[in-house]
Design goal:
Blueprint: H1 2-17, H2 69-76, H3 95-101, H4 110-125, H5 138-143, H6 150-159
Length: 173
């Protein structure tokens, strides 16, 4: 009588473990296919108002139908798309912001450094996590000590006298 009860318990545990909501937190690559976020669709072709006013063709240069995500983002946020100069020049309106954000120095290879440090951190954290019976949220497990509690941060800012927007209620399930 004891053995069938144990087997039923194991079957029930495995069945319930399939109900876990994994969401999009498992950030590992699941296949060898292309990255759909790297594909920028071109703008639709339109007929120009005056064919004599077209710019001269520039081999290897930009096209009128090429997407410019930076300029489109600036326009969507209410800025002037002309400020998104491809030359890398900093618009005069942003000079103060760039100066303030780079006051402690800017490393040219910051992305590569962070990627190497994160790879080392992930390798150290994943040593004991190779065996899993049920789906596990690896992202939550690995980065749990680095997450911020938004309600505690909001309360700390309010205690410091910083005007903060109203926060949504704490969702305690």
């Amino acid at each position: 009588m004891r053995l069938p009860l144990v087997i039923l318990g194991l079957i029930g545990a495995v069945a319930v473990s399939g109900c876990v909501q994994k969401e999009l937190r498992d950030i590992r690559a699941t296949g060898t296919g292309p990255d759909e976020f790297l594909v920028l669709p071109p703008k639709p072709l339109t007929e120009p108002a005056d064919y004599s006013a077209l710019p001269a063709p520039t081999p290897g240069g930009s096209n009128l139908t090429d997407a410019n995500p930076q300029a489109e983002a600036i326009a969507a946020l209410g800025g002037k798309p002309a400020a998104a100069e491809p030359t890398g020049a900093i618009p005069s309106g942003d000079a103060g912001l760039v100066t303030a954000s780079s006051r402690y120095g800017v490393a040219a290879n910051v992305r590569q450094t962070l990627a190497a440090e994160d790879a080392k951190f992930l390798k150290r954290k994943r040593r004991g996590g190779k065996i899993k019976i049920a789906p596990v949220d690896r992202y939550e497990q690995i980065y749990s000590k680095q997450t911020l509690d938004p309600f505690a941060v909001n309360a700390a800012f309010r205690r410091a006298g910083v005007a903060t927007p109203s926060a949504p209620p704490r969702n305690e399930d």
